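Structure first, sequence second, as always.
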């Protein structure tokens, strides 16, 4: 009986740069995230200021940064914002005026 040694080489696919025909290797990251290759898989990491799993079919990435509002040009002072709910609404210089019961 004659035995032979056989070697099997398994290559890790870089899913983040893969552009072949197999859809299961194409990353499923949202635009607000970066694909990070791992051994045997990949993860989607949300950009700075965003939170979530980064996946299109998951939580995605939600913007967690507070809004910044600026006003440029004529008619910008005083700073007046019309909003139904102003929690977290802050002008760039940290001053604002809440106006209610206005008609447009």
């Amino acid at each position: 009986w004659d035995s032979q040694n056989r070697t099997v080489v398994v290559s890790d696919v870089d899913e983040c740069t893969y552009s072949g025909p197999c859809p299961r290797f194409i990353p499923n990251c949202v635009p607000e995230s970066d694909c990070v290759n791992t051994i045997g898989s990949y993860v989607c990491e949300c950009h700075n200021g965003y939170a979530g799993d980064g996946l299109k079919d998951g939580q995605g990435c939600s913007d967690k940064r507070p809004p910044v509002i600026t006003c440029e040009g004529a008619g910008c002072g005083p700073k007046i914002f019309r909003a139904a709910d102003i929690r977290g609404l802050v002008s760039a210089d940290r001053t604002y005026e809440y106006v209610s019961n206005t008609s447009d």
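Margin note: DSSP finds no helices and eight strands in the chain.
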